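The records we work with from here on pair a chain with its fold. A complete example follows; check for yourself that the lines match position by position.
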Amino acid sequence: MASSKDIRNRIKGVKSTRQITRAMQMVATSKMKKAQDSAKSGRPYALLLSDIIVSIADEFEEITSSHFIQKPIKHRGILVVGTDKGLCGGLNSNLFRQLSDIDSSAKFVAIGKRATQYLSRSHKDLLADFTLPDKPTFSDVRKIVDFLLRSYDEGRIDTIEVLFTSFINTLQQEPELVRLFPLNSLDEMNAKLHQRFGSLEHEVPKDDREIIIEDRDKILAEISSLYLKQEIFQLILEAQASEHSARMVAMKTATDNAGNLIDDLTLQYNRARQAAITQEILEISAAAFSD
């Protein structure tokens, strides 16, 4: 059995750790609420933009833009949205587990230090890596999308997909792989988007007005670029809500476990202290009888 001093030192160390995990839990709780609100508030705009693109695309009898035509897939382009920090449970490991099923010809763009480190260690074809602040803005995401679009137009990648952690609720987050480009199946992609954000029974509103578009190619390029930027921005917000939720739950679990460990150690300490006192009484009694 460990000595009373050893147990007392360990109790002190666990209490210090509990203070840290409790502080991290409080910080994560604050960030979680803001991230969840940002993710939820952006969903209606993402859905509306998707509906508008479907409505405009229906006005064209034939679309020749490369953003709307499926080409032979030689290299999939996948944006992996990880985290900069750890201590968020199995969020990153669950996300990276899906990468093992992706063929080796795929090329990757990473967001977050954890994603960059994993892709480098696993010798994946990493085109670029980016970091984002805790509260990303549309401008922060634009540079990432511009790089993806440039790589797509130059033929380095043939699809644009996003692997991220989808936010379901505070206790549940699931990794998901979403294909955004090319926009060759708009109706299917729009239906999946509404399903992902909880709008199951939804029909794209029909506009009976006649729309005259002078520069068709320019309009298609602009709306496809705007669509990609908004959808990636929304998925990043979802991923950040998942990160802060997972970290809050992980830190709460760690704090609770530290409390249970302190209780067990305190019980051990009291037993060791009682045993030491009993031993001293026996030694004193034995000495008295020997005299």
